[in-house]
TrEMBL record:
Entries under Pfam families matching the protein: Rhodanese
Span of domain Rhodanese: 19-109
Tagged with keyword Signal: no
Superkingdom of source: Bacteria
Protein name: Putative adenylyltransferase/sulfurtransferase MoeZ
Amino acid sequence: MTESTPIEISVSDVHQQLSANDIVLIDCREPDEWDAAHIEGAILLPMSQWQQAGEKLAELSGKPVVVHCHHGGRSLRVTHWLRENGFPEARNMTGGIDAWSQEIDPSVARY
């Protein structure tokens, strides 16, 4: 990847890269949303707690990071923040977990 890494990534590309352990998938939704539905292998780092997430983010430094939320709005904001704070190739999963449920894994509950 280069500086021109697109900010958006499709759920199918995330699925492929997650299966190959090529990315770290961050779920920026809140714990109650995580409890309702989550993607196997994702790491929960709620957007509301990013101020305190410094240690966890330091562990992810240098790794390819993809962020998702419910539909993609919050995760896009987090992705922009990450790109400005040491993760220049961070990407947003287009459509969020809702698209994941529809296109990849229908066993992940929609809400």
